[in-house]
Amino acid sequence: MNYISASPALLPARAGVGFKPEHFGAIAADQQPLGFFEVHAENYMGAGGVPHAQLRFLRERYALSLHGVGLSIGSPEPLDRDHLARLRRLCALYQPESFSEHLAWSSHGGVYFNDLLPLPYTEETLAVVAAHVDETQTALGRRILIENPATYVRFSQSDIPETEFLTELTQRTGCGLLLDLNNVFVSARNHGESALGYLASFPLIAVGEIHLAGFFDASEAGAPLLIDSHGAQVADEVISLFEWTIEQAGPLPTLIEWDNDVPDWPLLLAEAMKAQDRLRHAERGYARRLDRRAL
Amino acid sequence: MTSVMSGVAGDFAAALRDPLVTPPAMLSAHAAPAASTRFCVYRNNVAVSLIGALEARFPATRRLVGDEFFRAMARLYIKAQPPRSPLMMRYGDELPGFIARFEPAAEIVYLADIARLEAARTRAYHAADAEPLELSSLAALDPENFARLRLAPHPSLEIVESAFPIVTIWASCTGEAPLTAVEDWRCETALVARPRLEVEVRRAPPGAAAFLEALARGMSFGEAADSAAARAKDFDLALIIASLIGGGLLVPADGVKQMETIHGYLA
Q: Short name of one Pfam family for this protein (chain B) (predicted)?
């Protein structure tokens, strides 16, 4: 089934944060000036208890993004039907504004690796990934977003650039994209390429959400290596890419992803508010340009 | 599925699982670091995330053996029994069994039972919700009707039987109770449950396991009490009522079925 809509963004074009249970008390104390919360779908696949009580609370008060990390869409093996059914029930229960997954695989031969693993980009893998995205959209009855990965290796078999692979994926399936700008920066540095060059060929029209996060620098002399750690503030270089992107595409729902060494709530909220300021700034500039075009 | 894609994922997966397997040959790197070094980022991510998941789920077990021992044991467990599902909340369900057979840990005789208790806590945390039966709601019942009640264990409840004082040991390892020498070294049965939102661990009164088992088989309150009294010598009904109903560990028998339907989305 092909899901095409005018805009892939049902989340508000404001800043949001990845929800961490340790922040629940602080979040619940007040209405937060945030556009949305994002949760990892797999953490809410138990039957009840605190996770669902907290998610119900957030759902009633904020827009919600459900972010899957375990479907293994980039695997050559068939999708896990049980997992797809669990995602469908979760979507039916919470009606999130957005569901997203990754251009990656995480299971093989019945083993789950709990990491987002890379795939070669070829005609063959494109056909498989497109079929998996299609199957997922049909199962969930909604358009989904696919996130660009942070990668550390490439494959000698790859003969399609990642941006072209993703563009083609959106055209074949009607899916939207989740643009992770930290991943763009990390991958570009790791592969000796230009992050802006990547963005210039990225289909911004299909972007339904942006992710911002921090990385870990594991470089040694003459051997640059950045690791997508989600454990630090957003780097200045990534902020620059963010400014460039929303200048081009206008404001988009933007998530601060901070999953490791999680800071106190005020610091995380402050990171989100910095992104919010930039979105507001971009909105004004974008509106001015649209006005001029209308004249 | 064909060819290149399967080959790549298969080789990649094999090298992730076993550090002695060489990283796949088709990896490329434009410059330093070498592809094999880059591959280690993935190997490290997988190991760190899985060990981290076990550390988070088994804090008392880890405290009993120390960080270094726990990490080494976790590595062996991960190799022997890697996750089979993307639901990480379930990962480690088999760790207690692994520990029971793990020779280097044999000296700590109660270690596997502590791990069983901790595994049950995670399951209770995620179990279906059900409103516990209130003791006050039964106050008006005469003994005959009380005996006829059809009750069931709360869906989150698990019984962990042990030949060791596991509740005492667990509590002192997690800061729930002060760390002192266990003076009364005798067997304890743990009741692990989440009547509302908090997971609770308590010592079971004598005969509780037999009584709960009888309830779960569909016996009425009175029948279960008789059955448990026949099997457990120090069975005390007053203690059972105070602990199980007072502790919110029982629900109306048909209530459980209703809740399972509501939460039927769990596979």
A: DUF2063
Determine the angle formed by the axes of helices B166-173 and B111-126, rounding to 10 degrees.
70
Q: Check pLDDT > 90 for residue A247.
A: yes
Closest Cβ–Cβ partner in A47, A152, A191 for B41: A152
Confidence class of residue B177 from pLDDT cuts 50, 70 and 90?
confident
Of residues B5, B28, B88, nearest to A114 (C-beta):
B88
**Neighboring chain B residues of A190 at a CB cutoff of 8 Å:** 38
Q: What CATH class is the domain B130-267?
A: alpha beta
pLDDT in tens, A12-46: 999 999 999 999 999 999 999 999 999 999 999 99
How close, in Å, is residue B202 to chain A by CA atoms?
Answer: 19
Class of domain A15-294: alpha beta
Domain positions in chain B: 1-108, 130-267
Q: Do B4 and A90 touch (CB under 8 A)?
A: no
- For chain B, the C-alpha Rg in angstroms (whole number) is 24
Is A253 a residue whose pLDDT tops 50? yes
Q: How close does chain B come to A68, measured CA to CA in Å? A: 10
Pairs across A and B, CB distance < 8 A: 164
> Cα(B89)–Cα(B123) distance, rounded to whole angstroms?
8
The structural domains of chain A, with segments of one domain joined by +, span 15-294
Q: What residues have CB less than 8 Å from B140, skipping those under 6 apart? A: none
pLDDT tens digits, one per residue of B224-260: 999 999 999 899 999 999 999 999 999 988 754 444 4
Q: Which residues of A touch B196 (CB under 8 A)?
A: none
Q: Does B43 touch chain A (CB under 8 A)?
A: no
* Cβ count near B40 (within 10 Å): 18
